[in-house]
Amino acid sequence: MLLVRNIRLPLTLRDPDAEAVAKALRLLRLHRSQTSHCGVARLSVDARRGKPVLVYTIAVSLPDERQEAALAGVPGVSFAAAPQYRFATGSAPLMHRPVVVGLGPAGLFAALLLARSGYRPLVLERGPALDERVRAVARFEATGELDPNANIQFGEGGAGTFSDGKLTTRAGDSLCGFVTEAFLAHGAPADIAWRQKPHVGTDLLRGVIRNIRAEIESLGGEVRFNTALTGLTVRGGRLAGITTTAGDIACEQLILAVGHSARDTFAVLHRQGLPLECKPFSVGFRAEHLQTDIDESLYHGAAGHPALPKGEYQLSSHVGGGRCVYTFCMCPGGVVCAAASEAGGVVTNGMSLHARDDKNANAAVVVSVDGRDFDNDPAKAVAFQRELEQAAFRAGGGGYTAPAQTVGSFLTGGGELALDRVQPSHPRGVTPCDLGSLLPDELSAALRQGLGDFGRKMAAYRAPDAVLTGLETRTSSPVRLVRGKDDLQCLSLPGLYPCGEGAGYAGGIMTAAVDGVRCAAKLMENFAPQK
To answer: What is the pLDDT of residue 197?
Structure first.
């Protein structure tokens, strides 16, 4: 495949996709009839100079790959061989089928690769199947009745199910293509293959997850819902089994993909003496703006043009004390979620549907913390998260109402919530609060400095009526279960593969899914599928 990059076109064209293809063919001196495929491989928007332009990469395939190699020397053209995903299998026999704990992105893709390779995995998920989970979340939003195992954090699909379905990643891993192909094969929108910032949308992602699970089951895998891990059985220094809320299971190979909020599981691992360490994470709140303000900040006079996607941004500012304030998980045209998973704690998150057509945009605005803040004690890091969430619950007045204030009030150290154009979308409602008082003084000061810097970079952040809703505490796992660099197994317990966000080795849907594939592939290298 040939990739013709950096084809820049104005917004004024009636059919920019067709013009980009035509321009690529002219550059290659080819006619469309000479190609076996010609289409958009990547589309982004360059709005840096105030006049947005569309930037295309066009993929061209020829019947003879040798012809492609000959054209790769044309300026702006590169040759890319189609990726081949081959996974080796070992010869050692397995006494029992491999177990995957957790059915978020990491567990889902680990199980998918194992199932496709004939290993018939057993998958355990502490929460319910997706339909029941969706009902539990809706009930919580309407009544405040929280199910600690069926919520935005736990259940089929993991925390990523109630998000934007973002597949953006900076990881240049070839396995990203494996994950994208699987998403496409199970019903994700076609444009995730070429959008610069691909997203599925919370609504469409649910169907994709169901379809992947159905393939796992059709290939001999088994999924058991409402089954939580409660302990590990060790014999002779190796994993021999697991205990669960549904009974004991013999197991010599376990992929542990429990997600970033499985605090009870972290405690079990800690008590069993496994090597846990503090990992950097971040805390803060959700910032809501009008989506039109975001679009105008990014696209200026071109805002609203039908060829332009909903405006997205990513901002960061290095502040005192070696900390960084940054935006995270930006959701265009989305809503703020009530994401608690423990009684008496308020947690915020954000999500968008595929259409991204809600009135507000939201993003986490967070400040970094690390082991130095917790004496390098994983238990203290988890306790810090929990204490912030409980403080937010009290400040909200109970019932999982969230504390909130306007940006202008936060910057001046007040506690007002004088609503104007931006109406908060948190489903349990909001209560006025001085959000800075819920955080340590150093972190509040850092967030104020960061927001001031953001306002100098982006006009929307100068709007005093933007709403901050707190607290955002689950940006990533606060702990890491240490594993070997080469075999990916727990340093002190062979047979256990710490995997994904909960183990501290991923951050987002794509990287978690890739880590699941990577862990499954390592397991497969050592063992043969059961006959």
So the answer is: 83
Q: What's the rounded Cα separation, in Å, for the pair 457 and 462? A: 9
Distance, CA of 290 to CA of 292 (rounded, Å) = 5
Examine the pLDDT at 170 and tell me if it is beyond 70.
Answer: no
Torsion 419-425-430-433 (CA) sign: negative
Per-residue confidence at 48, pLDDT binned at 50, 70, 90?
Answer: confident
> Rounded to whole angstroms, how far apart are CA atoms 107 and 520?
9
61 is written with which tokens?
Answer: 């395939």
Handedness of CA 128, 134, 137, 139 (dihedral sign): negative
In the chain, the domains with their CATH numbers are: 2-79 (3.30.70.2700), 99-276+486-526 (3.50.50.60), 280-472 (no CATH)
Residue given tokens 């183990």 in the structure block: 503
Is the pLDDT confidence value at 171 over 70? Answer: no
Sequence-distant contacts of 127-135: CB under 8 A, at least 24 apart? 127/151, 127/154, 127/155, 127/156, 127/225, 127/226, 128/155, 128/156, 128/225, 128/226, 129/155, 129/156, 129/225, 130/155, 130/156, 130/157, 130/161, 130/206, 130/209, 130/210, 133/157, 133/161, 134/206
- What does DSSP say about strands 479-481 and 316-318: parallel, antiparallel, or unpaired? unpaired
